[in-house]
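Slack export, channel: ligand-projects

TW: morning all. Re-posting the request from yesterday since it got buried. We need the structure predicted with the small molecule present, not the apo form. The ligand is zinc ion; the SMILES is in the block with the sequence. No rush, but it would help planning for next week.
GE: picking it up
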Amino acid sequence: MYSVWNDFLNLIFPARPFCPLCGEHSPDKNVCGRCRSTLDSYLLEHRCRKCGRFPGKGAVLAGSPFEHLCFECRKHKWPFALARAVGPYEGILKDSIHRYKYARRRVLALTLAPLMAEAYRAEPLYTEIGLILPVPLSGEKLRDRGFNQAALLAKELSVLLQIPADVRTLVKKFETPPQAGLPRAARESNLKDAFDMIKAEKVNGKNILLIDDVFTTGSTLSAVASVIRLAGAKHVFGLTAATGRYF
Ligand SMILES: [Zn+2]
Ligand SMILES: [Zn+2]
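GE: finished. pasting the full token output, ligand included:
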């Protein structure tokens, strides 16, 4: 009934095809030319070879621009092998992730996941991934939001990359208080206790692709990667829709 009514409405007011990222007119309903060139420009930007974050204006790049490490990665050892993202958390990516996550526009997973698959394919250092896992949400958060934004992306990526995904193995046992202002070590140990694995044997000896929507300070990805490695995974690689900038 709903679809008949929808068809009827579409007949009278034909839906204007629009770009899923910016909302501007796009004849084929795909990412429009302007958004495409913004995304392509991210591929040409330098990024930290370890955490994948982009330098902000005024950041000092040590070493070759294509092989450099950010200040944090020079002094800090991460439990993940590397992390990559489609682009920086700003403009169209930030807006789209907000609509996806907070306005619950789940359909945006169908746009964001293929862009993440492109970022995955552009990075030759991802090796022999055996399993895709999403960063889990606590039961409380899941009830509030109604879906886990990372799990939806992981399921789409599993289809696109032809790699199995498991959206139930990792769990977040309780909601962690806001971590802003805490030193890195405190943030990470608070978070580490919150995550757990139900069937640890699933990751044993495998390389894992860990999925989240945004890489901000890296604390979440880092805490989850530690739990996965403790369970016996070989390497953990991160992939997010967007990432931060560093200065
Ligand atoms: Zn657009
Ligand atoms: Zn870095």
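GE: first-pass observations. The chain has a mean pLDDT of 91. The domain at 18-246 is CATH 3.40.50.2020 (Rossmann fold).
TW: perfect, thank you
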